[in-house]
Amino acid sequence: MQLLEAGQAETSARILYDSCPLCSGKDLRIVRRADCSQHPLYRPEIPADMTWLGCADCAHVFTEGYFDESALNLIFGRTQIGQTVGHDIEGQRAVSARMVQWIGEQADLGDWLDVGFGNGSLLFTAEEFGFRPVGIDLRKANVETLRALGYEAYCMDFADLATNGRFSVISMADVLEHMPYPKPALAAAHRLMQPDGVLFLSMPNIDNMVWRLLDANKANPYWGEIEHYHNFSRKRLHALLEEHGFRPIKYRVSERYRVCMEVLAVKQERLAS
Ligand SMILES: [Zn+2]
Q1: Given a cut of 50, is residue 199 above it in pLDDT?
Q2: In this prediction, what percent of the chain has a pLDDT beyond 70?
Q3: Residues near 115 by Cβ (< 8 Å), separated by ≥ 6?
Q4: CATH of the domain at 248
């Protein structure tokens, strides 16, 4: 581990949003302050306080800023055990199978792109069900492991993929809330998908009784979740999907993470603008 030089502490910080990252609204209010210093990925070079803002125009809730590159390197320099390829592969397979079955009821068998594949379970299981798996992840070691196992995998921003119209399924499991700007990702998903392709999203849901109860008990882990920039409600997510040419068709509760929702949306042809 590298020791912190004097004066270096200020080099890792957040780049502040000057408007709502979803609707560009300027009327922003502080809704919550939290401390992320107990998070396993926290590093002392990163600010310990997290400030959450609410947009008066669209009601979206998001952090006041996103990490600059030096902070990201510190955070992504370490990988949590659950995000390494093959972690708990048998336990994860059963949960992934229920997800693939649910998604597969709406999607044609074809190429399946998993954005942020993490431990790889969803991709391995999709393959078992007859899909052709493609993985993309920002963690280089994960991509190298998947490639060594013979899978098509990329370490890049998935908006840079050029295979328009290829995928019958794109899954972004617990990904959108990690992106400083989710809209370009949804636009890329739309472009990369075949007509009637199915988009799978999962993320925490801010608008339900469990969330409110955790808040009341001061036990909600998501306000101090260092890797998240957004707390979506189902309503806000659905509106965002519709704005990007997707029709939300199914909703259910996640088995993988606390208080999370899972949403399926079908690609619609874009309206001429
Ligand atoms: Zn907004």
Answers
A1: yes
A2: 94
A3: 136, 158, 170, 171, 172, 175, 185, 189
A4: 3.40.50.150
Rounded-to-integer distance, Cα 232 and Cα 212, Å:
14
Q: How far is the CA of 26 from the centre of ligand 1 (A)?
A: 8
Burial class (CB in 10 A: 0-12, 13-18, 19+), 223: buried
Domain termination residue (choose one: 76, 95, 118): 76
Tell me the one-letter amino acid at 152. Answer: E
238-242 contact pairs (CB < 8 A, 24+): 238/263, 239/58, 240/22, 240/182, 240/183, 240/186, 241/186, 241/199, 241/201, 241/265
Region 199-222: mean pLDDT is 97
Cα 245 from Cα 82, distance rounded (Å): 33
- Read off the tokens for 158: 């998935």
* 173 and 87 in a common domain: yes
Q: State pLDDT tens for residues 151-161.
A: 999 999 999 99
Whether 228 and 63 have beta carbons less than 8 Å apart is answered as yes
- Residues 149, 185, single domain; the answer is yes
Q: How far is the CA of 259 from the centre of ligand 1 (A)?
A: 22
Distance 267 CA to ligand 1 centre (A): 23
Rounded distance from Cα 24 to ligand 1 centre (Å): 6
**What is the three-class DSSP state of 114?**
strand
Q: How far is the CA of 63 from the centre of ligand 1 (A)?
A: 12
Report residue 237 as tokens: 């997510």
